[in-house]
Each structure stands twice: as C-alpha cells, then as structure tokens.
C-alpha cells in the first residue's frame, strides 16, 4: 500500500524515527483539502511510542476538522537533528514522514490526559498548564494520527 523509499541507502531504522519524534516539538500535518488541494499546517505534537500514535489538539470547528471529517487520512512530517558535515558548511539532517488515519478522541478523560502530556512539552509548569486547561479545555479537540506507515532518512543538504 505504501511505496518504498526511493533512496533506500538513506533510510534509517525505525528506532531513529521514534527518537526524532520524541525529540522534536513541531511538525507539519497534511490533509486532503477542498477542491483536491492539499492542506498542511505547522503544529505541535506528542508522540506516544507505546500506542504508536501522534497526538495533536485544536479547535472544535474549522477547516482542519472539516478536512478530517471528509477524509481522515493524513500525513505528518518532522525533521531536524542536523549535524555539520565534513566540509564545514553543509549539513546532514534527519526527516520523518508518517502516514495514518486521524481519530478524534471522544473520551474527555483521555483527551484531558493527552492534552496535559502534550502541554508538558511546551509549558514551563503544571500551574500554567492547569490554568490553560481550566480556561480552554471545553473548547479543545484532541485527536491522534494512528500511524500505519513511517519512514525516516538522513539526507545531506548540499
């Protein structure tokens, strides 16, 4: 169902992909949008290795949710871990592409738990997280990308 990576020599093991998802804090989530145009948004995320899911949050209304309801298949990209190459001016970096289906988390207790875990990656204290949760959780939607296929590679940018 999913294509093999064309430059197979650049492919990294699945453990490298998981490591990149644990380290990185931002990526781009893409959907099938209206009129066959792709819709991609930069977004914060939480990777749950045990569940093999990537969690996100957003508003309960809007274009992103409309795309999900129309077609819940999505693609997520993140990259980083750059290191200076031997030539001293170009870089090696790792990139990850994950494909899967979006699931809206209907269970509000689970949604709150995952949103707190996600927020813990970005906020400096639980006090601030609790303040935001109290103020905004009722308007938040939590959803996950249930990963069906994932690749990671190391590229030389030159």
List the helices and strands and how they pair.
Elements (H helix, E strand, L loop, with lengths): L13 H10 L2 E7 L5 E7 L1 E3 L4 E7 L3 H8 L2 E12 L6 E14 L3 H13 L5 H11 L3 E18 L1
Overview of this protein structure:
The chain is of the alpha+beta class and about 160 residues long. It has a single domain (about 10-155), classed as Pnp Oxidase, Chain A, CATH 2.30.110. The chain contains four helices and seven strands. A seven-stranded antiparallel sheet has the order 2-1-5-6-7-4-3. A hairpin with a 6-residue loop joins strand 5 and strand 6. Helix 3 (about 110-120) packs across helix 4 (about 125-135). It is globular and about 50 Å long. It starts with 13 loop residues before the first helix and ends with a strand. The model has no long low-confidence stretch (mean pLDDT about 90). It comes from Peptoniphilus harei ACS-146-V-Sch2b. It holds the Pfam family Pyridox_ox_2. InterPro entries: Pyridox_Oxase-rel, Split_barrel_FMN-bd. This is Pyridoxamine 5'-phosphate oxidase family protein.
